[in-house]
């Protein structure tokens, strides 16, 4: 018997509803599996449940980084971390940023063996942090050094003169708000800045001398701002050996760390939003739904990881 048009329409509606709920059920099941996996196999995501070697990347410009400090502290307190590799690739940064991370690495090294593995470069504050480790390895063509302190400021007074702009100011004392980009510095201002630089510089040289077991004079001779290759760094005592992760693990083995332990990278979970809204989670869900592997990246780019963000954050940071 032929079906009526109304019956066909009803069947199609029912089929669409069933398809929707099937997909929803699979998605919920996938989320449940992800939650269970992250609970029982947390080492894949945070490295916290089995004995391992922790790896921390310190890259880019060094600034004050509360998240990194907390991460290093968590590594120090974790009984499952038997050794630490600092993978450093940085041109330097702020003195306070370098100092705070340096101090935290020293606390970490007091409890666990720490080795620094230099990538392309570890210069200035990047080298300061590397020197906090118990051992430093770098590739032959890596760049290390640039020991020194720098303050730079622009002088736009010439441009202001051309544009007919004048600056008037009332100050409590001659050195207040100096140096200023709106006028050339005088001798007193330059002398003040130089005292500031030399104090931080002397502190930096002292760190190098202490950590690299040099005399102050030996460290001072290398602290003229020069940069060195990895091979030159070994010859000058700035690093301990040439190599990469393999050599770093070999050194950890000399400190009683099992070289067969898995190396687990402790990542910035605040930056990537945690596992729940990461690309890995999205790939897991799309795979469970039978979608291609790249669908997780597509969903991530479309903003699936922002569904539960505060509205203003979503607007201001699209």
UniProtKB/TrEMBL annotation:
Under the heading CDD domains, the entry gives:
S49_Sppa_N_C
Q: Which SUPFAM superfamilies match?
A: ClpP/crotonase
Q: Does the keyword Protease apply?
A: yes
Provide the leader sequence positions: none
**Annotated keywords:** Hydrolase, Membrane, Protease, Serine protease, Transmembrane, Transmembrane helix
Q: Which residues form the Peptidase S49 domain?
A: 108-254
Membrane-spanning segments: 20-41
Membrane as UniProt keyword: yes
Q: Extract the Pfam families matched here.
A: Peptidase_S49
* Similarity comment: family membership: Belongs to the peptidase S49 family.
According to UniProt, the name of this protein is Signal peptide peptidase SppA
Q: Which organism is it from?
A: Mesorhizobium shangrilense
This protein's encoding gene = sppA
């Amino acid at each position: 018997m032929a079906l009526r048009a109304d019956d066909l329409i009803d069947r199609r509606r029912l089929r669409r509803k069933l398809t929707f709920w099937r997909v929803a059920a699979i998605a919920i099941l996938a989320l449940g599996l992800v939650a269970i996996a992250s609970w029982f196999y947390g080492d894949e995501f945070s490295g916290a449940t089995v004995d391992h070697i922790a790896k921390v990347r310190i890259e880019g410009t060094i600034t004050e980084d509360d998240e990194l400090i907390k991460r290093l502290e968590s590594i120090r307190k974790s009984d499952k971390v038997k050794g630490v590799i600092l993978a450093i690739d940085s041109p330097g940064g702020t003195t306070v940023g370098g100092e705070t991370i340096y101090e935290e690495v020293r606390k970490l090294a007091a409890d666990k063996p720490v080795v620094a593995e230099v990538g392309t470069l570890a210069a200035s504050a990047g080298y300061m942090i590397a020197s906090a480790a118990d051992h430093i390895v770098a590739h032959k063509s890596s760049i290390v050094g640039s020991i020194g302190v720098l303050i730079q400021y622009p002088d736009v007074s010439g441009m202001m003169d051309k544009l007919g702009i004048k600056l008037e100011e009332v100050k409590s004392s001659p050195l207040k708000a100096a140096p200023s980009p709106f006028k050339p510095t005088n001798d007193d201002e330059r002398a003040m800045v130089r005292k500031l630089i030399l104090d931080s510089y002397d502190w930096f040289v002292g760190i190098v001398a202490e950590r690299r077991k040099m005399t102050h004079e030996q460290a001072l001779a290398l602290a003229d701002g020069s940069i060195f290759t990895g091979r030159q760094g070994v010859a000058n005592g700035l690093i301990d050996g040439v190599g990469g992760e393999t050599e770093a693990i070999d050194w950890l083995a000399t400190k009683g760390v099992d070289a067969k332990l898995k190396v687990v990278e402790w990542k910035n979970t605040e930056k990537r939003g945690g596992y729940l809204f990461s690309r890995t989670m999205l790939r897991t869900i799309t795979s469970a739904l039978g979608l291609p592997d790249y669908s997780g990246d597509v969903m991530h780019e479309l903003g699936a990881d922002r569904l539960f963000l505060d509205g203003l954050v979503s607007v201001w940071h699209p």
